[in-house]
Each structure stands twice: as structure tokens, then as C-alpha cells.
Amino acid sequence: MTTATDPTTAGTDPTATATDPTTAGTDPMTTATDPTTAGTDPMTTATDPTTAGTDPTATATDPTTAGTDSTATATDPTETDPTTIGTQPTTIGTQPTTIGTQPTKDCINMTAIGTNLTAIGTNLTAIGTNLMAISTNLTEVGTNLTAMGANLLAVGTNLKAIGTNLTPNGTNPTAIGTNLTHDLSNLEGGTRYSIQVFPVKCGRSLNPQAATFYTIPNEVQNLSVTKVTETSVFLSWNKPSGHADLYQVKVNGSDHSKTTILTRSEVVGLKPGINHTFIVLSGLYSDSLRSEASHISGCTKPLRVSNLKVSGNTPHSLLLSWTPPEGYITGFQVQALNDTNDTLCEETVEGEWNRTRPEVKVTGLPIGTRITLSVVAIASGTVESDKATIVNYTAPAPISDLTLETTHSTLKATWKQPTGSYSCFDVTLRLDGKDVETTADVPKPEKYYENLMNGANYTVIVRTVSGHLRSPPLGNSKFTLPRPPTDVQVVSCCKDRLTFNWTAPNSTKTTTHLVNISSSFWNYKKSETVVGKTEHTFENLTSGTRFLIQVQTVADTMRSSPADISHCTEADEREISLSMLCSSVEPLHCAETSTKESVFSQLEAHFENLLGDHVFWKLEKQESENTIS
Questions:
Q1: How far is the C-alpha of 524 from the C-alpha of 284, rounded, in Å?
Q2: Which of 29, 364, 508, 614 has the fewest Cβ atoms within 10 angstroms?
């Protein structure tokens, strides 16, 4: 394994080793030149290849170079010139011919020739032995080359292990027989592999064919949607097993595609309230292969509802309506809270609802209460939009028992507080159907008015206020007390009639007066209503009678204190004579002046008591029958 980490250095050794067989092959040539010497050196020569045969083991330490130089190494024995070695005996074989002709020059000696031929045969035997040694040497060289080829196979396998990291120690070559296909299993996804196929002939591995390929990356794990907005979805996943350099994110049904090296991605430019299917593929920088797709569905957040409105306010309910947003909206969540965030009502609108203008009647609410209403749009059954809120009020209850108390110029209104909650009261003062004064934000159930017109019919209208809402009004009317007229005077008098006038009071709204005339003496009484006038005449009265005249200002059923005057009709005088008889036991007593005065005084007191000033009368004393004093 250490050898596999340095292929460059290791690759140099086989070349040097391959040179040894060449050197070894050269020795036989030298031996062949000298048959005598050749005969003694073959063993030494045969030893060199053995030494050369041990070198390929060292060659295995250099996988790269060894695999590259195998062809050159295998060629070296040829380059050592075995042909020359093989032809060398021919040269040697020719030599005896030369030797054989030499004795002819010296002398023709057949014996010498035979001896020479014997020597030649011996030499040829030596040459044959040398050739055998050479053959043995070549065999050793071939064996060395076979070892080198096997070493190169190991080196190639080692290189494969280094290039692919298939296993820490690489893989051993696999014999597949005569099959032309082979399946590799248990490989890591997204990994680059190099593979070599060695043809084997006669037990020897020939030059390999090499190929490089990538395995398809594994699909990502635990793909999930972590966050959604109206126009984007956030995805995250775990890195797959094996190798992956990048990830491709697609949206099903669209041309949207995004590549990232992170294990998370934000998909933007989506429509709100729509369910999308997202696809994530893992891939490699150096290859176009993509993993199997991992799918997940996610819905963008729907937009908020718009045009939220409240109508139909009653003491216990509100009608809520809105415009739905775009997208696949499956329902709405409606909630009502009070000012302390207590949930008063919560309702889900699903199924059949008005697609143009949905509405919900929120019921069971307290009277006159400030209500915060919210609507949430729901897409795909679970994804909620932001809340759209509106604040409104339930209608307040009306007041009760409105009571009015008046004087000549003041009015005080009181009433009972309504049930439920309320903010304040609005109170309006009206006269003759027109608003005189409107007072808002009255905190207590009472209102006091001053400097009003007397004898005027005022109306007070009270409404309970809750927010911008007002309860049905409750009103009541009452006249201020009328002031009495002034300056009553008789302007004309006769025996049977009296004419009088008066001055109406200031700051009065009424023009109605009640006039009375009475005489207690005659037990006479008469009343008449005068409208729009300040003068009146009573007729058919008794002459010489003092009448009491009274004038009152009238407002509704109320009357002012009377303004009065007494006056007598002209008397129709009649004279009545009375005679009195005086008797006394005392002589001349009745004739005394003092007696007469006393009797007259008693008579005058009697008539005063009887008639008073109710009728005209006058008592006179008659001194004689024909005179009156």
C-alpha cells in the first residue's frame, strides 16, 4: 500500500530491471564467440536472469511506470539480439571450415582432418550447450517478463484503488472467464472509478483496456419544507451517502430550476396560496449524471384577505365580510377577541362559501363591547395567511326610565344605565323639532340645562354610545314652567262687561293664556283660554259687582302663577229706605244723639259684614223723613 502512494518513483525501477535481462542476454553472445569459453560460462550466464527475475518484485512498487513500460520490458530480450545469438553458431559452424582448409595448405593429412572434425563436433556440442544455456536464459527472461506483467496487473489494480477509493486497500483482480460483460456491485454513489480489463493468454495477462466512469449519485435524504412565504418556499435536506458536489432544485410543472452546493435552498417567484411539488436532484461537477428525484409538496402562504368590513351591528352579533385572496383557498379562520384578548368566538369557514364576497355572522358577543375581529385565509387545508384585523363594536343597549324635571328656566334629565358595556352617552336637547344643544361623551346618566325659555316644550333624547355605534334613542318631553303675565289692567268697564289686557312674560315660547273672572258674592266664576292675544272682555256681568280677574300663562298642562286685578262693574244704583223704631224704659233715651249714632254704626257694620266691597252699596243716615245726611 505504501508503494501505491508513490507511483512515479516506483515506475522507474522496472525499466532498470528490464535492462538486466538484456545484459544477461549479452553474456551468451560473448560465450558464443569463444566456444571454449562459452562452454564454461553458461551457468554463470544462466544465473543473471534469475537475478533479473527477482527485480520485478521491486517493480511492483511503481504501479504507474511499471504498467506503462511493460511493452518495452517485454521487447528488451529481443533487443538483446537473440537472433544474433542464434546466428552466432552459424559463424562458429563456419569457423571449422576455415580451420578445415588450413591443413590442406600445410599438408594433406586426413588424420588431422578427422581430428579437426572431431574438434569441430566437440565445438558444435559446446555451441549447442551454449545455445541451450541461451534458451534457458531466454526462458528466464520470459519468466521475468511474466512476473513483470503480473506486477503491472497488480499495479493497475492498485491504481484503480487509488483513483476510486472503492475500498481502503483497493480490489483484487477478478477472473471473469470468457465472459465479455461483468457487473460491479456495492459501489459508492457519485464516485469516479477506473477499471482495467486484462486479456489472459496462456496464463499471461496481456496489455489491458482501461475505462473511467462515474456512478450515479444517491438521492438526497430527509427533504423537508422549513418555511413558506407568499412567494417563496424554503427547502432543506441531508447530504446523500457517497459523493455529491451540487444539487438541482426544480419546481414541477414549471421551468424553474436552481443549482446550489448547499443542503438548503429558497425557491422564489412562486404564486401565493398555490401547492407546488419540488424536486431535488444530487449531481457532480464533472459529470451530467443526476440522482433519482426526491419529491416534496409545499404550499406558499396565501395573501391576506382584503376589504374587511363589519355591518349589521346588533347588541349580540356582527356581520363580517371580506374579499378572498388569489390562490387555492380552502377555508378561512374567523376569530373575535375583546380588549383583554379573551376569545369570544372562533369559527372555521369551509366547504361552501361565497367565492366573491365571503361573510360570517359572528354571534354570542357581549352588548356594547369593543371587538377585535380577525380573518386568516387557509390554503391547502393547513397553510395560513397573515391575519387581517378590524376593530368594531356590538350595538349598545338603550337607556331606560328617562325622567325630566323643570322650572321656569332649567331642566334636569336623569335615566337608568343600560345593561352590558358602553362608553358614554350622547344627549340632545330639542325645541320645536330642532336641535338646540347636543352633548357628546356624557359620562354619567344625567344632564342639567339652564337659561331655558319658560313655557317651552323641550325634548331630551339620550343614546348609549359604544365606539362609533349608538343605541336606539330614548326621548321624553316636558315644558318648562311658564312665567306669569304682568301689567293686568282694566281698560273698559260698564254695567255688564269688563275689558282688560296684560303683558306676556319675557323668554316665553307660549302664546296661550287662561283668563278667569269670579265673584264670591254672587258665587260666579268663568274661565276662558286666550291664544295669541293679550286682551279679553267678559260680558253679561252683574252691575255694581266687584269681580276678580286673573290671567295665567299656560304651557301644556302647566300654568303659571296668576296675575290678577279686581274691578267693579258700573253700579245700577237703587235707593232703599229703612226705618227703625226705638223704645227704651228710660225717658227720651232714643231721642239722644249718641243713641242714634250708636244704632247707625251698628247698622253700617252689619252691611259691611254682609256686603263688604263685593257689591256697590252706601249707607246714609236720614235726619228727617225728607233729608238724608
A1: 129
A2: 364
How many Cβ atoms sit within 10 Å of the Cβ of residue 420? 18
The three-state secondary structure class of 230 is: coil
The pTM (predicted TM-score) of the whole model is: 0.51
- Beta strands at 434-442 and 411-416: parallel, antiparallel or unpaired: unpaired
Q: Is it the case that residue 444 has pLDDT exceeding 60? A: yes
How far is the CA of 533 from the CAs of 146, 177, 502, 503, 511, in angstroms? 154, 143, 9, 10, 7
Q: What is the DSSP letter of 454?
A: B
Q: Which of left, alpha, beta for 328 (phi over 0: left; psi -120 to 50: alpha)?
A: beta
Closest CA to 283 of 240, 242, 245, 236: 245
Q: What is the pLDDT of residues 19-71, one digit of tens each?
A: 343 333 334 333 333 433 333 333 333 333 333 333 433 333 343 333 334 33
Domains, the chain, with CATH or none: 3-164 (no CATH), 221-299 (2.60.40.10), 306-393 (2.60.40.10), 400-479 (2.60.40.10), 486-568 (2.60.40.10), 573-629 (no CATH)
3-state secondary structure of 191: coil
Is residue 168 over pLDDT 60? no
Q: Could you tell me what percent of the chain has a pLDDT over 70? A: 71
pLDDT at 585 over 50: yes
Q: How far apart are CA 65 and CA 171, in angstroms?
A: 20
List, for residues 330-359, the tens digit of each pLDDT value.
889 999 999 999 999 998 888 777 677 888
72: which 3 cell numbers?
A: 518495452
DSSP conformation class of 185: -
